[in-house]
Amino acid sequence: MGRFFRLAIILGVALFSAGVLIPDSTLARDLMPWKSPDHAIVIDAYELNIIDWDAMLKDKRIAGFISKASDGLPESFSCTGDHGGDTVAHCKTMWRKYAVSRELYQTRRLIARASGLLWGAYHLARPGNPIDQANHFLDYAEPRDDELMVIDIEGIDAEKYMSLEDAGIFAGHIKTRTGRYPMLYTNHATAKHIAANRDRFPILSRLPLWYARYKPGIRNVFPMGNWDGYSLWQFSSAANCGKRRCPYRVAGTLTDIDVNVAAMNAKALKAVWAKGELLPEKPLERPLLIAAGKGSISAGAGMGVDLTLTGSIRRVSSALALR
Fold it and tell me: 223: cis peptide before it, omega within 30°?
């Protein structure tokens, strides 16, 4: 090891220890980015979250608010007992809950927008007709042109959640009606599955990703399929925030509030917030299976090349070229 090389390592360690080493952008994005003022904070809430808006708005890091909007298929308001096997009493209870939650949604939107926050809404996707659910979301949320739209896919179990195939139909219908695509909210396992099968999910795999994972760091997760990184990262919720320890405390809320960090500052986030565009598509890198087994290829007089003919044409050509 050369003298100057050793000196560079010593200097680097010293700067890191002193806390003045400037990390590369990938490290800053993937390792506790919520600690940096260069990354905007976004709150998302459902109807049972308690919020003291005066207290919460004192946190100037908060740039946006995403609210739960619709949930699955629309509720029946006729309550005749013929809606999915519901009793009349249950139907009335669900309709009252729906009416109250929608008024709360409208009230929160009014407060958030008046306070200068970016606004967004998500649909909790359930099994059932995806077109009806997309229409339900648009009727409920009434999204404006500068508001973010989100489809929330909680997993790949089609008995509990909307299937990924139906989620693509949902997103396509949102595009048809609004001219914009929604963002995709999902967890690591589901995102990984979509990325690995992006030829089957050409729309879902190109939606901007709102990534849910409750860890301090997510290095080496990205790139993943068409995703070079997250648009939003939900890093804190009731799952990892308690009275004693929490990644990020939001004043005026309880420990069950969901907190997200953007991959950019507030100004940059505002510029792309409601664009609703698909991400660039990356080519699949799956090798082409051309044969299985061993054989001998003649590469010229006196030159025999033994190859296992499994892989891509590129790999076979490379092997011949190297010989």
Answer: yes
Total domains present in the chain: 2
Q: Examine the domain organization and report whether 267 and 295 are in the same domain.
A: no
Q: What residue type is 171 in one-letter code?
A: A
Tally of residues, the chain: 323
Q: Can you give the pLDDT at residue 11?
A: 39
- Measured over the CA atoms of residue 239, residue 245, residue 251 and residue 252, the dihedral's sign is positive
Residue 81 CA, chain-centre distance (Å), reads 38
Runs of H (alpha helix) within 46-183: 53-56, 88-114, 130-141, 164-178
| pLDDT tens profile 106-152 | 999 999 999 999 999 999 999 999 999 999 999 999 999 999 999 99
Q: How far, in whole angstroms, is CA 286 from its chain's centroid?
A: 24
One domain, residues 242 and 166: yes
Query: Which residue from 104, 107, 111, 98 is spatially nearest to 70, judged by alpha carbons?
Result: 98
Domain that holds residue 307: 287-323
